[in-house]
Design brief:
Oligomer: single chain
CATH topology: Rossmann fold
Order of helices and strands: EHEHEHEHEHEHHE
Shape: globular
CATH class: Alpha Beta
Bound molecules: NADP nicotinamide-adenine-dinucleotide phosphate
Distance between the termini: 34 Å
Strand content: 15-25%
Length: 247
């Protein structure tokens, strides 16, 4: 699928990896819908940057941690329809990430992770995926995490939510075939998590074969490949983790 002229919805796009994906796809000629939750100012600045470069950007605010995900997603869909925006590519990038050691797991942090990292992306993928299937063209890209295959015991709710999204990716790829391709990207250490200690950062680097952090550009390039590089890839996960899985 050519990126030029397509409409791409990117969740959690105001900052960090989402921002890089938005800028990259805009530079390839996509119209980007920048979803944000708290980062309204950063989202507006990004839209301004994109427009100054000659691109097109719209803003969309939504908090995925609230109950009523399916209703919220339908509300988003209706709003985009009113603006005559048909989503050609959905990138589920928004995520909540913090440690929850076994003894500290409770219903609050469990539901927080499941709603933001699994339920919202699933319902977004279902609704927009069905629309894409009806139009006989579309791509859905889920930003996962390489640690799904090496779960860290202090992050179980996060990693279980991403594992659920991985399974959803495989099932949706079958359910939405043959016209919609659904894939995941599994990043390794790309940007320091908020509150990461120097020791944790060192350990994250040591777990990679390449002995360094990646860059948001590495994820943007993988996204570009899954959109434009091939239409014969579906139901798979592209690891972008500096060789962590071979360690
Ligand atoms: N950073 C890494 O090295 C790394 C490693 C492995 C996997 N990943 C995955 O890659 C993706 C991007 O990583 P990142 O570090 O750039 O992500 P991030 O900064 O942790 O989060 C991305 C965005 O998610 C949005 N978000 C958080 N809570 C939300 C809620 N309740 N409702 C709606 N949106 C919400 C936030 O939007 P607002 O700021 O607008 O509130 C935030 O900017 C994530 O899926 C992450 O799991 C990242």
């Amino acid at each position: 699928m050519e990126i030029q002229g397509k409409t791409v919805l990117i969740t959690g796009a105001a900052l960090r990896i989402g921002r890089e994906i938005a800028l990259d796809l805009s530079r390839c000629g996509a119209r980007v819908i920048i979803h944000y939750c708290q980062s309204q100012k950063a989202a507006r600045m990004l839209a301004g940057d994109i427009r100054r470069e000659g691109g097109e950007a719209s803003l969309l605010a939504a908090d995925f941690s609230k109950p009523g995900t399916a209703v919220l997603v339908r509300h988003i869909q209706n709003r985009l329809k009113r603006e005559k925006l048909a989503v050609d590519v959905l990138i589920n990038n928004a995520s909540v990430f913090y440690p929850a050691p076994l003894k500290k797991i409770n219903e609050k942090n469990w539901e927080d992770m499941m709603r933001v990292n699994l339920k919202a992306p699933f319902f977004l993928a279902r609704e927009f995926g069905l629309e894409m299937a009806a139009r006989k063209q579309g791509k859905i890209i889920q930003i996962l995490d390489w640690t799904v295959q090496r779960p860290h015991p202090d992050y179980l709710p996060y990693i279980i939510s991403k594992s659920g999204l991985l399974t959803a990716t495989l099932g949706l790829a079958k359910a939405l075939a043959p016209h919609v391709q659904v894939n995941g990207i599994a990043p390794g250490p790309i940007l320091e998590a908020r509150g990461m200690t120097p020791g944790e950062k060192k350990r994250a680097v040591e777990r990679t074969a390449l002995k360094r952090f990646g860059h948001p550009r590495d994820i943007a390039a993988a996204v570009r490949y899954l959109i434009e590089g091939s239409d014969f890839v579906t139901g798979t996960v592209l690891p972008v983790e500096g060789g962590s899985l071979i360690m």
